[in-house]
Amino acid sequence: LGALTANSFRIIARYTIDKDSDQSSLAIPSWPSELSFTNYYGSQRVGNRDDFAASWRIGRALLQRNYDQALVLLVRRDRPDFPDQLDLQIAKKTARSLRRDSPVAEALNAYARFGDAHKAMSAVPFKSRIIWIHAYQSRLFNAAASQLQSTSCENETTLIPLVGAKTPAEHQEQIRILTEDGITLDDFKREKCNGAHRPLRATATHLQVNSLGEDALEFTFRLPPGAFATVFLSSLCKELRVVDFTSKISD
């Protein structure tokens, strides 16, 4: 355990050339075999920005002790038509329609028994609940990374805190979000989340890009543990000036 040094990826991606580009065919840059990029968390960790029930929103509600909202957001991931306000009878009916061992069903069944959203969310296993807290941490990391990138205050060794009980915020954007959300380090402590640090930059190695016809590329590369292939691919997409990548990933 703990010996993983890199993840290997092979991605076949189809693309559409940006309509604002002056190129009629794709020109592949002469990228080096090692390429640095901003080490953002991907949407599969944080959740999509416009998703009402994104993972980070559930994490924020838990940290804010807004358990009613946390439960509603959780249920609406599986049942988008679930009402904004908790209703005991609707909760019972919805619980019966879900797979029994899912976190949503466990929370709703607890709510049906106790009529208490706090007890309902506490019934969700810790390993599931902490994922939502980590998603909120990831949102704070991405905000700080974006701020540093826009101000050019970055280098290959910069570390950004994953805010937690033992890891206070260090960057203006993180502090702003925490203040707006009314969240303190004590809230992370209550959720047993100590925090850590994550590099601002990551480096892809063994990069190779090959054309597979008029609208497809093959990417092969290695990433350090914790770096997201989708984020790296997105950074390449910007340089290629293409849009609408669809991909098949194997690792």
Reconstruct the topology from this structure:
Elements: E1 7-17, E2 35-38, H1 43-46, H2 55-63, H3 67-78, H4 88-96, H5 103-114, H6 117-122, H7 126-151, E3 159-162, H8 172-181, H9 185-190, E4 196-199, E5 201-211, E6 216-223, H10 229-240, E7 242-250
Antiparallel strand pairs: 1-6, 1-7, 2-5, 3-4, 5-6
Fill in the keyword field for this structure.
about 250 residues; alpha+beta; five-stranded antiparallel sheet; 10 helices; 7 strands
What does this structure look like?
- It is a single chain.
- With 251 residues, this protein is of the alpha+beta class.
- It is 42% helix and 20% strand.
- It contains 10 helices and 7 strands.
- A 5-stranded antiparallel sheet has the order 2-5-6-1-7, with helices on one face. It has a two-stranded antiparallel sheet with strand order 3-4.
- A hairpin with a 4-residue loop joins strand 5 (201-211) and strand 6 (216-223).
- It starts with 6 loop residues before the first strand and ends with a strand.
- The model has no long low-confidence stretch (mean pLDDT 86).
